[in-house]
Amino acid sequence: MTAQSLLTTLLPLVADLSRELPEGERYRRLLQAMRALLPCDAAALLRLDGDWLVPLAVDGLSADTLGRRFKVSEHPRFAVLLGSPGPTRFDSDSELPDPYDGLVDGLHGHLQVHDCMGCPLFVDDQPWGLLTLDALDTERFERVELDALQAFASLAAATVNVAERIERLALRAEDAHQRAEIYRQASGQQHKEMIGQSKTHKRLVEEIKLVGGSDLTVLITGETGVGKELVAQAIHAASSRADKPLISLNCAALPETLVESELFGHVRGAFTGALNERRGKFELANGGTLFLDEVGELSLTVQAKLLRVLQSGQLQRLGSDKEHQVDVRLIAATNRDLADEVRNGRYRADFYHRLSVYPLQVSALRERGRDVLLLAGFFLEQNRSRMGLGSLRLTSDAHAALLAYNWPGNVRELEHLIGRSALKALGNCRERPKILSLSAHDLDLPDVSAPVIEASAPVPAALTSDLRQATEHYQRELITACLERHQHNWASAARELGLDRANLGRLAKRLNLK
């Protein structure tokens, strides 16, 4: 490699440093330039986040790689690279497992013997992440000078430094969000990550940043399993209350007689079994955020009492006349249409309007395009680690099946599907494999190529009535069939349907199935 070829490759990246580019595009150009300089079959840029390496850009690896999170302690090659001051090339006969085994595009088996090298990136003299290169030819990197990779790594570090400085400037424009980020980094607390690259997902993230910096009450709506609690956590993390508690309560998981005690607390002797004084969720969340999940399940009586607290900030513990003042930001979530509940007299209009100061809709998974592959990658890596496998991957037909499926249970259904399919596929192996590949057959998703209803088929009578009756008819048939498959085990049926056990019980009661 000549100095001229190195300069020719690096100059466009130097020019990019002064240009305003989206982060993803900046990193994509970086990898393209590296593959032009150092020809290889797969390359990746990974950011170090605590004990984990997070892929920011990949080239030559499967799409789901971007959704994976690699724990450094479980991947010795990554640990070696991070512990080296400069580039490292692994011997072709290295016995260290390769984290990309099974993930290289176009390769359906093991990586076997191959060429692999990488280099740590440092920003402000602190380890920032890694650049990695893999080649299927064992002689590919023989003549490559590691100095060339070091030179490239220095420019790569400058590139990510520029990208992070731009991000920090954007954060300063939102002072409250900046304070939340500073607290998160200082405390070392890691909130669950929201994974996705679709336009729908990015719009949601922008809305979270916007409303997070305010103190407005937020009503998160969306189908079961879309991740409403994750959104609530993100809003809290983006708020000025991020250093205060985030207290959660699932309103559907408790009997109505206990909801008030959980929310407002009680004094000793307030009811049978109240042996000690106890603070409620509002007092525990004082100064912070209270997240009420399944808020559509609250009774009219509890709604009225909650309304008073939201209006005045004052509450009374059950059995006490003493007033307690609280400062709480409320975030609520529901999969019900509360406006429709109000129209039908099942929900208080004043309480609904108090909740929906800032409504936030979370899209269904089927509306998020290829995000399903990123999320699948995240869950695959989780299960790979949990099951002690070298690699857990999806075949191309499995990718197609995931993209074609409608996902009525959304992200939660995807998570359960990956875990269940991996366990079953491993159980079907006579010997423990190095790479476990999940095919469309293993996922056992409906055949999307087969028409669900023939065009000439008559419309069922139930579907000719109004929408509410048709929906309830469909729900009854779906729940009944699911219960029969699980020998009327309600907990198992709830898991398959992607519902909380208590929610399924309430729904069945409303549909007269109990």
Automatic annotation (TrEMBL):
The alphabetized UniProt keywords are: ATP-binding, DNA-binding, Nucleotide-binding, Transcription, Transcription regulation
Q: GO MF annotations for this entry?
A: ATP binding; sequence-specific DNA binding
Question: Does this UniProt record's set of keywords contain DNA-binding?
Answer: yes
One Gene Ontology biological process: regulation of DNA-templated transcription
Query: InterPro entries recorded for this chain?
Result: AAA+_ATPase (IPR003593), AAA_lid_NorR (IPR058031), GAF (IPR003018), GAF-like_dom_sf (IPR029016), Homeodomain-like_sf (IPR009057), HTH_Fis (IPR002197), P-loop_NTPase (IPR027417), Sigma_54_int (IPR002078)
Superkingdom of source: Bacteria
* Name used for this protein in its record: Nitric oxide reductase transcription regulator
The residues forming the signal peptide are none
The record, for SUPFAM superfamilies, names: GAF domain-like, Homeodomain-like, P-loop containing nucleoside triphosphate hydrolases
**Residue intervals of the Sigma-54 factor interaction domain:** 194-423
